[in-house]
Amino acid sequence: MRKLVVCITSLAVLSPALAQTAAPSPSTLDKVVASKTMRVCTTGDYKPFTSLNVATGMYEGIDIDLAGSLATSLGAKPEFVASKWATLLDDLNAGRCDIVMGA
After folding, report:
1. Which residues contact 32 (CB under 8 A, 6 or more apart)?
2. Residue 47 and residue 62: Cα distance in Å, rounded?
3. pLDDT digits (tens, 9 = 90+) for 57-86
4. What are phi and psi of 74, to 5 degrees?
5. What's the whole-model pTM score?
6. Domains of the chain with bracketed CATH
């Protein structure tokens, strides 16, 4: 009986601590919706999917249009982040962007 009381007491003491650490971190989607900005890593060097217009400094192409449409549907604005093919996934994993677009 004493072991049962010790176990129940231990659970009662640990339960609040476990409940506090069990909260999930916000998803990328939650962060985009809350910030109203969707950061998009893109290379800007692969027409017709993504290209950087040097005259305007704006990205253009199919991927850019799709990213803009997705951002709008989430109530956010797209923010394009310059990247390179070799570092697209590294940039995503490092949190420099929320999604990558590359053909």
Report:
1. 38, 71, 74, 76, 98
2. 9
3. 999 999 999 999 999 999 999 999 999 999
4. -95, 5
5. 0.76
6. 24-101 (3.40.190.10)
